[in-house]
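Sequence decides. Consider this:

===
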Amino acid sequence: MAWDVGEQNLTSFWDEELGRELVAGRSTAQPLLELRFLREPASGQAAIHRALPLELRPVDAGQARDLLRDMDPAGSVAPREEELNQALLRVACGAFQASSGETLPLRALAWLTPSAPLPGRRIAEPGELLAWRLAVVNLAEVMVVEVLFPRLPGLALEGDDVLVYPHHAGERIAQPAATLATERYLGLHRAGTVREGGEYVREIPYCGLASMMWMDYHDGKGGVYLASYDPEFLLTGLRVETGGPESPYLRLAFRKYLPIRPGEAWLSPPYALGVHPGDWHWAARRYREWFDTRVPQLEQPADLAEEGVVTPHYDFRREGRVYHRFEEMPSLFDRARRELGSRHLFVSGWNHLGFDNHYPDYNPDLELGTPLDLARGVSAVREAGGFVTFYINSRLIDLESEYYQSLGRRWALRGPDGNTVQESYGPRTFSVLCPADPAWRKHLADFGEWMVTGYGARGIYYDQLGSATPLPCYSRDHGHSPADHHGLFNQGYVRLLDEVLGRLRRHDPVAFLMIENCGDVYSSRVWGNVTWNGEQYDESFDVYRYTFPEHALVCMVQPRPVQDPRLQERLFRSDVGRAFLLGAVFWYEPGLLEQRWIGEGSPESAMEWIQEALAVRKAVASTLAASRLADRQPFDLPRGVQGRLWTPRTEEPGRSREELLLLFNPERVGGKVSLPFPAGREVRILTASAGARASGERAAMDGWRVGERRLRPEAGTMPLPPRRFAACLIAPSRPVEEEVAGG
């Protein structure tokens, strides 16, 4: 990779190995960085303003050192001297211009360093990671509150270009310059494209709406990777800018939310940049390598690795109606176990006035029974061999709650103007609360602990924690540390998860947490991540599953509430098939098929899809728990059949070294599967079938039997099992010494 720098940004960006320029010449120039600052007038509301560099000029190592000394005599942002010496590129700016036209004494120096520096080198090797760094010194009388850096130049790839974007569990956006300009993305709630200055811009914040801090733009032959290696995991925006189909360039950028006060300086964390061969899997591996240097994976209870299904009930009390009472919990559990083999009952709508009502009053609703009735219901489930998880909303307070004026206004997240942030769900309106406020975190942790100690819960689910938009909070009354740091949203939730899990496991060593959707720094601490089957945007779940294979995705497989029978049936089959291929835990609310199903056949026949998939999944659960999705899927399948290859995550002694091929064959067609390994390896093919039953009788989960067939394919192919779901366990090739020892 080679490059050149112009007035404000990189002007050429070459892939030497592929012999092509990656920067689109028709890209409108935008600066490599920009700042935003908060101005608090003597009267009126505070507001955020944009500031752009007046001039961004290349400098040599000596000039860079001199600039840093002048900018920051105290040396608070001084990098190691060899870092500046080895940089391939250094650019500096001595002043910024505000949107009002005034010039601000804000200083900046950015540099790009290779991972293996050599004197005089100007080219990065294929797949080599470079690190952008930035130093900012604030000599103005305003507080800098946002830093947009680095903004890559307008990239353009040939052919079938794809943007991999970590919206929830992942998006793979084909032809992103054109796609992001469509009405479909312009109309997307909270994560959509907006128009800015004639461009199409999409920006989502981490951690929550964005699950990871990396993006990749590739066309299969090669691509560009950009990631934030921020050890503090600050609130971070992941930004994409494009000119749309008429001017199809793509810029990638990051935004950090942090205070740089007057007279202070800031040194950024590294931003990794790499041009690589192949597709996004390379990028996912690089990000995970860095992440593992910062965040350990918390060990989860061993028995949860065998769990294949969660059976939720959001209908204890909902929309003013009582559907179930606490005394019904044993019968609800019995049905879930009979139909799905579930041990895991998930309870929502149990709180005062029910689901999405009067949060955060997490006391039992008295129309459902007394607190002791709730405890007895949980105890009966546990005595029957199951366990219960309770729902708690981690984000909201109902504006109609009697506690809003006292607790709600005190804990409310506030924008730069001091106003609260409100969101509506159904007929109710809520205020967003600040997770960086210790008092709000204590409220959430106390109720989580009480559900375990007082009612016997094993799991606590914090709704919206990894799903809704994370936001900066400008309140100075919340106990943020420091008080005026507005970018601590993520750290607040990390502290909550650490605190509450520590408390739960003092009472129950196998207690666990679940969250809505996923976020790497959160999901490393919890067992389950509920990825919902809503609008079809963030549904490339394999992006997150590949990057973090040990994080349990809990995928919804219940029928979607659509009015088109064919569409509902197609989506239902697709959701079940995807959950199976991803080795996900299934999420199905008993009774929803009877309530919603309008597709072909009966609800009972649709239930058989879930049961068959769960039966096969259970048979290979231990192998799945020790495996990861393979980089490539190197096999050929008949049309309409899907497959996913899983490989062992580690080579630890005692761990299975079998590879696992999962097959989804919705039409049960015949044919052959080409195998991605030499002939002669043993394959065990597992499929499930239901026992005989009377016409119209519902199949019970314990009526399904898994059969096994063993073969040693000699021609590089094997017969395709004529079942909807199959698991093929592929024995490892034996080393030569084993072959000799075995005769």
User: Anything to note?
Assistant: Residues 218 and 473 are 35 Å apart (CA to CA). The chain has three domains: 2-291, 307-397+434-623, 628-741. The first helix runs from residue 61 to 71. The radius of gyration is 27 Å.
